[in-house]
UniProtKB/TrEMBL annotation:
Stated name of the protein: Cell envelope integrity EipB family protein
Keywords linked to the UniProt accession: Signal
Signal peptide range: 1-20
Stored Pfam families: EipB_like
Keyword Signal: yes
Amino acid sequence: MFRSSLAALLLASVSANAWAGAPAASAAAATGLIAHRAVYDLELKDASDRSGIAGMYGRMVYEFDGSYCQGFTTNFRFVTQIDTGDSVRVSDQQTKTFENLKDGKFTFDTKSFTDDQLDKEVNGAAQDQPDGVKVDLKQPASRELQLAESRFPTEHMLDVIQNAKDGKRFFEARVFDGSDDGDKALATTTIVGKQQTPVAEEADAGNAGAFSKTAFWPVTIAYFNENAKSDSLPVYRMSFKLYENGITRDLTMDYGDFVLTGKLAKLELLERKAEVCK
């Protein structure tokens, strides 16, 4: 499903650990992220016969708040109505994450519902360590895992923005965001296009409010199973237009058998209190 890294993605230098040991740089970059709530209208762009999907639409709400000192919180809800031709069902994914960049900590909690019935819950915590990432998983089963060194979602978003500003068009990173069963990281490749300015033909550009005429980067992130062969297809691919402050719009979410688009319908900026890190 959609990953919190828009959320993330929504959001690395050349390697996944390029910023390790550089908290000052991370702090400076993190102050540029803006607290906001974004609402996206979702529509089915394409679906293969194998998908079994005749129609699909929905709405996504993404709320990002916090600071480098206090940590960043993401609340994310992804609701779709799916028509298979024989029946219609409503899928509802609700995710909350907290990421402390200073201490290298990340917590996640995702509940997935079908027609208001809870199908699955995944929650736990992850901690950066010298030899990788330790995951303390609570749901769907209690266990501890040791994963290879990985970026957390806000770290990865900061990496994407920094690479875009530096003119680095392609880079790879391993990312852990607690998605799926919360028990693995995914390898990612990111492609960043040249910075552009919105044009009148872009349907959702005007809904970006104060940023409607602000320059953005076109970004595509592909997610692969960690041990996938070099010529393997991604398990998921997402394209979007990214502003320097972390806001995204004009989403395309490619799940392989079907593709969704997400147009920014509403953007609300959230008030953030000034603070001094101690």
